[in-house]
Design a protein that fits this description.
alpha/beta, 2 domains, seven-stranded mixed beta sheet, six-stranded parallel beta sheet, binds adenosine-5-diphosphoribose, binds zinc ion
Length: about 350
């Protein structure tokens, strides 16, 4: 039987979000209903609310979540009721060209639940954020969006791997291929940049330079594993990174802001034949201008990292295991835990710059 639960709805462009009752259908073939235990507040949720992603209001927000599978539909074999899972927005199809050539982390045809959740009050269909919609007591997803991990991890920590923290760690270890002894610079030390720092440490980087314009962020970056910090409001970031790398530049520079000026810094702060990874998300009007001769002459690789080029089934359980072994402090990303009705307040706190992640705990 369909169930009624509470969820956080963005009703229209720039309108405050509110908790409403929603209808969650029973899982159909290939679907699962998950009882949400925790869900982090991400910038993408705010972008949905602001109408920056699309106009398909009302949205059911929330997508960095962990919980327990309550029920599954016909044909679901990978997860079962009672499994502790992290939700992902890359449920690989196994059939598309990317999947068939063995690169499922680029899957072009990831899927979501086919049935729609609706608003109890009006019957309107909801658009779940990133196909998840997890600021809710329960949500309906495709079974492939559920990745089973060790259940001994705290849900508020596990959920963060579902989006921003995975994007940052993956930018370093998957896209940037950071390895033992490398020098890495990370520009922008919010949740994503800090995760790139933690990922670089995990991968054995010898020197990790954190760059930000906010000293509070730099202090936190040090806790995450940065060996050096640069305040780029006071010091030229490119010169500082070169100085800290014997005059060469870093092997890998990770741009975690998403702006042309910080991308340019990343481009010039890497060593010859080094790698730039763009994981910060730009806005449509932004343009980048670079001398093409420098693009050619400096060689190396200019890469973008979508969702940290992660493969949830490979990366989530592995990172949770490393966390449980004390080798990756995922707990450090949780600044505060809040209730379902405090998401609007958490959006306001994002601007104050003292929060890495607010996490709704249910
Ligand atoms: N130079 C250096 N750092 C900057 C600059 C700049 N010009 N402008 C902003 N920053 C820093 C901020 O001080 C902050 O510490 O970048 C950081 C951005 O962090 P958050 O706002 O917390 O964002 P985060 O969640 O880390 O996401 C970063 O990745 O996934 C994308 O959409 C996301 O584009 C965003 C980026
Ligand atoms: Zn595919
Ligand atoms: Zn997100």
């Amino acid at each position: 039987m369909a169930q009624e639960v509470r969820g956080v709805i963005a009703p229209g462009k720039d309108e405050p979000v509110r908790v409403e009752t929603i209808v969650v259908p029973d899982p159909g073939p290939g679907e699962a209903v998950v009882r949400i235990q925790a869900c982090g507040v991400c910038h993408t949720d705010l972008h949905y609310k602001q109408g920056g992603i699309n106009d398909e209001f009302p949205f059911l927000l929330g997508h960095e979540a962990a919980g327990v599978v309550e029920s599954v539909g016909a044909g679901v074999t990978d997860v079962a009721p009672g499994d502790f899972v992290i939700l992902n927005w890359r449920a690989v199809c196994g059939q598309c060209r990317a999947c068939l050539r063995g690169r499922p982390w680029y899957c072009f045809d990831t899927h979501n639940a086919e049935q729609r959740m609706t608003l109890t009050s009006t019957g309107q269909e909801l658009s779940p954020a990133l196909g998840i919609g997890a600021f809710a007591e329960k949500t309906l997803v495709a079974a492939g969006q559920c990745t089973k991990v060790d259940a001994s991890v705290a849900p508020q920590v596990a959920g963060l791997l579902g989006c921003g923290v995975m994007a940052g760690i993956g930018a370093a270890i998957n896209t940037g291929n950071v390895g033992r002894g490398d020098s890495v610079a990370v520009i922008g030390c919010g949740g994503v940049g800090d995760a790139a720092i933690a990922g670089s440490r995990l991968a054995g980087a010898a020197r990790i330079i954190a760059v930000d314009i906010d000293d509070r962020k730099l202090a936190k970056a040090r806790e995450m594993g940065a060996t050096h910090t640069v305040n780029s409001r006071e010091t030229d970031a490119v010169e500082a990174i070169r100085e800290l790398t014997g005059g060469f530049g870093a092997d890998v520079v990770i741009e975690a802001v998403g702006r042309p000026e910080t991308y340019r810094q990343a481009f010039y702060a890497r060593d010859l034949a080094g790698t730039v990874v763009l994981v910060g998300v730009p806005t449509p009007e932004m343009k980048l201008e670079l001398p093409l001769l420098d693009v050619f002459g400096r060689g190396g690789a200019l890469k973008s990292s979508w969702y940290g080029d992660c493969l949830p089934s490979r990366d989530f359980p592995m990172l949770i295991d490393l966390h449980l072994q004390g080798r990756l402090d995922l707990g450090a990303f949780v600044t505060e835990t809040i209730q379902l009705d405090e998401v609007e307040k958490a959006f306001e706190r994002m601007h104050e710059g003292d929060v890495l992640r607010s996490v709704v705990v249910l």
